[in-house]
Amino acid sequence: MSIIVFGSINIDLVATTPQLPIACETVLGESFCKIPGGKGANQAVALARLGIPTHMVGRVGADNCGAELVQNLQIAGVQTDNIFIDETVSSGVAIITIDHDGENQIVVITGANGRVNQEDIKRLAHLLPTATALLLQLEIPLNTVVAAAQAAKDANIQIILDPAPAQANLPDELYPLVDIITPNEVEAGQLVGFTVDDEESAIKAAKVLLQRGVKCAIVKLGAKGVICATAETTFSVPAFPVHTVDTVAAGDAFNGGLAAALFTGLSLHQSVVWGAAAGALAATKLGAQTSLPDRLAFDSFLKVRGVENKFGVAE
Q: Which residues are catalytic, by number?
């Protein structure tokens, strides 16, 4: 059995600077690097590094970046047979600026990600019979996300949706297809139409998402922790305190940790703790995929903080 990630594959162009520029402002940067990214690819690498059999379905361009992106996924242990090399367009690119507090601004050029279509759904469908879950994001065409979710629902596969980049008007038909939705506070606010910035507003937002048809709503509040709500229960998980270097891919690490825990049979509460731990670890390093922890680092992080996993004493 395996987990499938269906989504974006980007190259990240990352600049660091003392402070983020405001509109029409030029600031001097300190460093620049090129790092494999894309929310879909990030989540696939997050899973594979935690030891989960993972397939990536998506597109890259027939360029040097595309070859580098596929190779990086393979090095991480991700199965890449269902990544299509699109000769009509460049690979996706994300331009990222990060300040000294670890906050960031991101501009995404979709490239090949914007061409993901029904042909890619066919490649996805081929993998569904041996999968336990499908991870989705919103950096590919929205109609394709809906089609992928429907295919997974028809195959009785768990669907985990990271609704990022934030969008105000997701199709009504998408929500009932989703088992777990994982917005951060900004994305949750966009989805529900009111500000989400603390536990009370996060619980309110989660309940709105449940009313729209999702089975479980998880709202990530950064340093304020995580709120998780289902029809039966609502609970919070505190954030793991760490020295934040860069929050890029922390949300992707969260989804990887969450899905990995569910794959290994842990409870929903334990799985949210795993997600929070993976996200915290990713925030301690620069970059997207370069920040995602392997299983050894992850298990050590949990042990030091007194959190046991499936291979130890129950939490």
A: 252
